[in-house]
Design brief:
It contains 5 helices and 27 strands. The chain is mainly beta. The N and C termini lie far apart (about 70 Å).
Length: about 450
């Protein structure tokens, strides 16, 4: 092959008798695509490669390949490296020279025992697919190496970073492996640990400053969550029935104190006392004056396997102010065929309510008060029933919001029942079935 220096594409897919790829292949300067998929007898690859023009290299289902070549020079053009379902037992630390790599796919490499830390320093890597790598147990680091830290201005601005995914679902994931790995994932935005055998989510997850979505669905041995990253917005723990009550309480507290979290789901039927019981109705009403307060609503629903039948559902919050309707917020709940609820679950949603300018212009207040109604609609037009609601104050004047019709006579001392003091809350709870719990979160200096 050294006699073909201008070769750009070499596709040898499904060459069942191919045993060896000659070293000369590793030095073709103009080679862009090297595909050896389904070469099931292939055992010998070049000892090293330096392919400056290479864009794609794929060895999918090369089930007898055990060693991957050393990278002998910086490769800036490579975008995709696929090693799915091979017998490779280790990757060289020099894989860090694949500086152009965008997607690394190593799923179902069950003989792969360790990952070099240089993978997580690749500047353009957006996706690492390592699901079903059941042998992973170690991170190979250079002597004295410690994970890099993010600049302080980036820690609080994760949304400006590249969208990066790491999929480690269906892996064993020992505690020591995860505790070492997570600090290297500070640029990652999505991590999937679904169907893995983890028992403890280490506190080193706090180092994942950019992490916004973490799923641990069907991790049936997961007992303890020791922390959550600062910018997390979505956390799924469907069917994680071994979670301790302390971990569940921590998730609730994080939802209440961290206004950035939008979605948490985990097994359970017990709802804290400060989530007041209310009848299962299709709408939640309240009255406000001056302007619609900026509220964050946390909907708590006890969900069973029969509550959701579709594998992908879209939900819309409809906000109706004095009969003027607006679809205010859309969110999605998705899962696979095997990811159905085995037991009751609690779903926490944090939704910001902001009416459109057009709606504000059409609002007609009566006696200074406007009636607002909130509905949660499933795709197809079916309205979901509210279970329990927690409303967190967020820079609003509490006397300007009521959860009972201001025209209802409550007694001489409490003609206007607001939620700004304990006695008002007690009266509200006694006089209406649509009870809510209002808690003020004081901002620290």
């Amino acid at each position: 092959m050294s006699g073909a220096p201008n070769l750009k594409k070499l596709h040898l897919d499904s060459c069942k008798s191919l045993v060896e790829v000659h070293d000369s292949i590793g030095f073709l300067e103009k080679l862009e695509d090297l595909n050896l998929n389904y070469c099931t007898s292939l055992t010998i690859l070049p000892y090293g490669i330096n392919l400056p023009s290479l864009k794609t290299m794929s060895l999918r289902n090369c089930t007898t390949v055990k060693n991957f070549p050393e990278i002998l020079g910086k490769m800036e053009n490579i975008k995709y490296l696929v090693l799915s379902n091979s017998e490779i037992s280790e990757l060289p630390y020099s894989i860090g020279l694949l500086v152009g790599l965008v997607n690394l796919t190593i799923d179902r490499c069950n003989k792969l025992l360790e990952l070099p830390s240089s993978i997580f320093m690749l500047p353009k890597l957006e996706t690492l697919e390592a699901y079903c790598c059941r042998g992973l147990a170690r991170i190979k680091k250079r002597k004295g190496q410690v994970p890099e830290t993010l600049p302080s201005d980036v820690r609080n601005a994760s949304s400006c970073l590249v969208h990066r995914d790491v999929d480690l679902s269906f892996c064993y994931l020992p505690y020591e492996f995860l505790a070492t790995l997570l600090p290297f994932l500070h640029y990652v935005t999505n991590i999937s640990l679904d169907y893995s055998s983890i028992t403890i989510l280490p506190s080193s997850i706090n180092a994942c400053y950019s992490l916004m979505k973490l799923t641990m669905n069907n991790c049936t041995e997961l007992r303890e969550i020791r922390g959550l990253p600062p910018n997390i917005k979505h956390l799924g723990a469907i069917n994680c029935e071994s979670l301790t009550s302390q971990s569940k309480e921590m998730l609730l507290n994080q939802m209440l104190l961290n206004s950035g979290i939008k979605y948490i789901i985990y097994p359970g039927s017990s709802i804290p006392s400060w989530f007041h019981q209310r009848t299962c109705e299709q709408s939640q009403s309240f009255w406000f004056r001056n302007k619609l307060p900026e509220m964050a609503l946390c909907l708590v629903g006890v969900l069973g396997s029969c509550d959701f039948t579709a594998r992908s559902d879209e939900y819309i919050f409809d906000l109706i102010i004095d009969r003027n309707q607006q679809s205010n917020h859309i969110f999605y709940v998705r899962w696979s065929e095997n990811n159905l609820f085995d037991t009751n679950h609690i779903l926490l949603l944090d939704v910001q309510l902001k009416p459109s300018l057009d709606m504000i212009g059409r609002v007609q207040s009566e006696n200074g008060w406007n009636h607002a109604e909130l509905l949660l609609m499933k795709n197809g037009g079916e309205y979901m029933k509210w279970r329990r609601v927690y409303v967190r104050e967020q820079m609003m004047n509490m006397p300007d919001i009521l959860f009972i019709n201001p025209e209802v006579s409550i007694g001489k001392e409490n003609k206007e029942v607001t939620c700004g003091d304990k006695r008002s809350q007690k009266n509200l709870q006694d006089l209406t079935s649509s009870t809510l719990c209002i808690k003020k979160i004081k901002k620290s200096n």
